[in-house]
Amino acid sequence: MKRKLWSVLLLLGISVLFITSGVYAQDEMTAYFLDVSQGDASLLIGPDFTILIDTGDSGRDDVVPLLRSIGVEELDLVIITHPHADHIGQLIQVLETFEVHEVWMSGYEHTTRLFERTLDALLRSDAGYYEPRVGETIEIGSLQIEILNPDKLTKVMHETCICLRAVYGDISFVFTGDAERKTEEKIVTSGLAVNAQILQLGHHGSRTSSSITFLDAVNPKTAIYSAGVDNPFGHPHPEVVERLIRLGIKLYGTDVHGTIKVITDGTSYSVITEKGPKTDHSRVGRVNINTAGVEELQQIIHIGPERAEEIICLRPFHSLNDLRRVRGIGPSRLRDIKEQGIAYVEE
After folding, report:
1. What is the full DSSP assignment across 122-185?
2. What whole-number distance in Å separates Cα of residue 242 and Cα of residue 144?
3. Which of 39, 279, 318, 333 could form a disulfide with 57 if both were Cys (CB 3.0 to 4.6 A apart)?
């Protein structure tokens, strides 16, 4: 009788373990890269956390409605990477609309009226305040946040950006605000883990950021940037897009795809976009050898003015291998052209 009772209890225990494991495996985190034009705002929602990273641009009123449309009622944490207007812009509205438990800032003191009014709103709220520093690991529910920057404050705002690695199960995200190459180099040489499947491109995809050294260290499969349609800054810059293409990193942008969702169960992830691309970023910064002009063709390695003219005369090409028809392009130079990654054929 005791043996039968023990067997029943054991089976019940295994069943409970199976059921609870199944529930845990189905718990998902969704990262929203919100379409807020040239501003930045990303929302991380999991089974036991709701975190907003940056609050869009000033002079706009889109962050609160977007959060409401997603179903946000309160925020465990708001992280302001740095106090430029396109990152801290709508924190006042967020604080006045939602219960915010804590706000993180770097401690950099900006001189703008917006920054002063935002601090006043923060003081009026019930939110806690904290200034994280490099090397700290903080758990918010089932999400682990690892601080990559800053170690100290300097006079250069972008050097003081809060940069972080958010880890959910086996899936990691890296956010760097507007951190530029100097800060990226510090992060890479810090010895901290920086690898991640998803990277939010620094400074809206600007050439000031996303160095090849940093991209190699993070080794992302997916890169996402926030930028306005036809923005006056030219974000994302073509050389950054070209760099990502060469590295085989899938690129998404809010100017092209609208709000972007990354959904993960902690073991794998999927990307869902609000709208389809109007621009094919796989072709941005690349050279179609069947349509490019003389100057454009010279962006390709080993192609000077004479070879560019010859390519135009020999058109059409059916594959890059056909470039062997061009005088002076042998197997070695053809291999260099393919490895450069900007030449392609589209008839």
Report:
1. HHHS--EEE---TT-EEEETTEEEEEEE-SS--S-GGGG--EEEEEETTEEEEE-TT--HHHHH
2. 32
3. 39
Render pLDDT for 162-172 as a digit per residue (tens, 0 to 9).
999 999 999 99
Question: Residue 166: is it exposed, middle or buried by C-beta count within 10 angstroms (0-12/13-18/19+)?
Answer: buried
Assign domain 287-344 to its CATH superfamily.
Answer: Photosystem II 12 kDa extrinsic protein (1.10.150.320)
Q: Which of 84, 83, 85, 43 is nearest to 63 (CA)?
A: 43
What is the per-residue pLDDT across 195-251, written as a single tens digit (0 to 9) for each?
A: 999 999 999 999 999 999 999 999 999 999 999 998 889 999 988 998 998 888 999
Report d(CA 49, CA 91) in Å as an integer.
19
Within the chain, all domains assigned CATH 3.60.15.10 are found at 26-273
CATH code, 26-273: 3.60.15.10
How, if at all, do strands 99-100 and 128-130 pair?
unpaired
pTM of this structure: 0.75
- Local structure of 99: helix, strand or coil: strand
Q: Could you write out the DSSP letters of every residue in 328-344?
A: T--HHHHHHHHHH--EE
Question: What tens digit of pLDDT does each residue of 170-210 get?
Answer: 999 999 999 999 999 999 999 999 999 999 999 999 999 99
Which of these, 15, 67, 59, lies nearest to 39 by C-alpha position?
A: 59
Instruction: Please list the residue range(s) of the chain that carry CATH number 1.10.150.320.
Output: 287-344
Question: Which residue do the tokens 């991380």 mark?
Answer: 44
